[in-house]
Write a structure and sequence with these properties.
Elements: E1 2-6, E2 9-11, E3 32-34, H1 36-52, E4 55-61, H2 67-74, E5 80-84, H3 94-108, E6 113-117, H4 128-136, E7 140-150, E8 154-160, E9 165-171, E10 174-178, H5 190-195, E11 202-204, H6 245-258
Parallel strand pairs: 1-4, 1-6, 4-5, 5-11, 6-10, 7-10
Antiparallel strand pairs: 2-3, 7-8, 8-9
Helix pairs in contact: 3-4
Length: 262
């Protein structure tokens, strides 16, 4: 079985500036990390690998420094890593990102299952996974909280829907997006770090893709128009109270009543 996991490098802090012209995050010079939800996707793939001897590929789209999250994935046990990196991919919205990833996955070829985290912490759209599936013309299910069964022809999953929990059997090849409580992600292994230190990340550029129309990628391929970007206003007020335990207890009680919390 061949599994492809989509991962992303995201800002490691909420203090991120925004390009007022493009509406995109300015990622240069900030701390980064692997998107937390993608850790659950990798762990799901690893659990399947342990039972079905699967081969796991990870793919990411980003600048060259996104190699770091692929190296981290190597330390968790994945087999191969691919990075979609090209200036023509820059500034992509959800649609252009999904399309580029679908083209990259086609380039890798030979997948039975694609796994994505529920969403990314820098976008929060939860749309990339389903859109990749649509571009690849394969079935998909979202909000997967449990893998019930998987064989050579299908996967059976439990989905956490808004008002119900549903069980669905889906024919392979397909795509699933997983919830954060599906498994507890393993920590990167120092032993695997040493073993994979020389393992290369395979870069995929625009020229490597079958689609050679630049208007389908990056800013040119992004129909989303950002009208305004601004940081959220903070209405937090800090107060320091002093007094006896009884006085402070009464004051807290009165404050909660005033704010209508009790």
């Amino acid at each position: 079985m061949n599994i492809t996991v989509c991962i992303k490098q995201v800002p490691g802090t909420s203090e991120v500036e925004i390009d007022e012209t493009t509406g995109n995050l300015i990622r240069e010079g900030i701390d980064t990390k692997m998107n937390p939800y993608d850790l659950y996707a990798i762990e799901t793939a690893m659990k399947i690998k342990e039972k079905n001897s699967a081969n796991i590929n990870v793919i990411s789209m980003g600048p060259p420094q996104a190699n770091d999250v692929i190296k981290e994935a190597y330390m968790m046990g994945v087999n191969n890593g691919y990075l979609l990196t090209d200036k023509k991919f820059a500034g992509a919205d959800v649609l252009a990102t999904s399309y580029a990833l679908s083209q990259g996955i086609k380039k890798i070829n030979n997948f039975d299952l694609i796994i994505c985290g529920k969403m990314t912490t820098d976008g929060d759209t939860a749309q990339v996974g389903p859109e990749i599936a649509e571009f690849l013309d394969i079935p998909h299910v979202a909000n997967v909280k449990k893998i019930m069964d998987i064989n050579s022809t299908s996967i059976t999953v439990e989905m956490d829907m808004p008002e119900t929990v549903e069980i669905q059997e889906v024919k392979l090849p397909c795509l699933i997006t997983v919830e954060k409580d599906i498994y507890q992600p393993r920590l990167p292994s120092f032993k695997l770090k040493l073993a994979t230190a020389k393992r290369k990340v395979k870069n995929i550029s625009f020229n490597d893709l079958d689609d050679d129309n630049p208007e389908n990628f990056g800013l040119d391929g992004s129909p989303t128009q950002v009208l305004d970007v601004f940081p959220p206003k903070s209405d937090r007020i800090n107060e320091k109270w002093e007094g006896t335990g009884k006085e402070l207890g009464e004051r807290i009680s009165n404050k909660l009543k005033k704010l209508k919390f009790v």
